[in-house]
Amino acid sequence: MNILFVGPYKQADEWGRKSRYFLSALKKTKHNITSRPLYLGQVSRDYLEPTEHRYFDSYDSVIQFTLAPFAIYDGSFKKNIGIFNLSTVDSSFYSPNVQKANLLDEVWVDSSKIHDSLSTQLTDAAVRHMSPFLDFDVLNNISPDSVMRRNSIPHDPDSFMFYSIMGGIEEKIGLAETLSAYYSTFSSREKVGLTVIFESAIDSSALDPIIQKSKSSLGAIRSQEDFPPVSILNPEGFLPDEARMRAHVEGDCFVSVEYSLNINTVTMEAACFGNTPLTNKGNEAYNVLSEDNAWGVESYEDSCVLAERPFPDMFTSHEICCKPIIKSLSDTMREAYTNKFKRDRKKRANSLFRAALESDDHYKKLEDILCM
Known about the structure:
- The chain is an alpha/beta fold and 372 residues long.
- It has helices at 14-26, 96-101, 112-121, 136-139, 175-185, 204-216, 241-250, 265-272, 284-293, 326-338, 340-358, 360-370; strands at 2-7, 32-37, 61-65, 79-83, 89-90, 106-109, 126-129, 160-166, 192-198, 230-233, 253-256, 278-280, 295-297, 299-303, 319-324.
- The protein has twelve helices and 15 strands.
- Helix 5 crosses helix 6, helix 5 crosses helix 10 and helix 9 (284-293) packs across helix 11.
């Protein structure tokens, strides 16, 4: 089967990474793959993708990894597939996402909640649930055994390191909740640190108020010296894969409590490095990893009304997202820090999880869904 894949795989953000990892998995199937890049963001990577130079006279299927408003139906393909990387559940039958999805033959999602919701809303398109995929050529590009720990994060080398890798400072990223829980749980007298790493350069002047608000939300007057250390790593341009892998090697526990219902690939990476991710129970990453591999934070569903919207009809009161409960996040961070027995048990489970994702059986799941 000849397949045309169109996606933002040259972007340096989560959209680009997820698209790249999916294309990598697609190339492991028995099908002939041609790819074409599109850009949904401003930051891009300059690299040569070999599948761009492949061309066939006809194609059986087209897979569009894009935002729903940009998807099109082309009758020259036997099957039009859309991967919209939806992060919320839209309760409106008349939303542009639902209307556009109904034009396609199939819509693929990596969230069971979004799958169940779309299955009741779409009348003409089939909804498929897809497994998460990683590119282990990227993960294996740095060996945990060959890198000296704590060689780039400015903290006590004996301290326990929480770390987060974030795509920005928008509300839905969960930065404010992460800082509030961390500051309220620990003090400078404990051997603990938090490193926040941004995937692309951000405006530091917009970050400082978030940090100060998180500190002042504690209410009690505390000396600045009493707060536990936080390191902010703000790259020039975008964060290279090598730097992200190094963070996984040097960190102890990955924290991601963004509001999204779908899978964050960095959370999956962290589990593959044995860093027992700490994530919302309401999102798909926790469903995949379970309490065996991760630390679950209690969360609640709420209308996803955000100030930052790529389109006027996205992140509205019709959409449901998953927000962390700060008290639960605080308690879970404390448990991850103190309970070494449970942490080691999760690390062993992480090794088995990585082996499962690397196996041929896992890639066969993509082959199966393509042939439905």
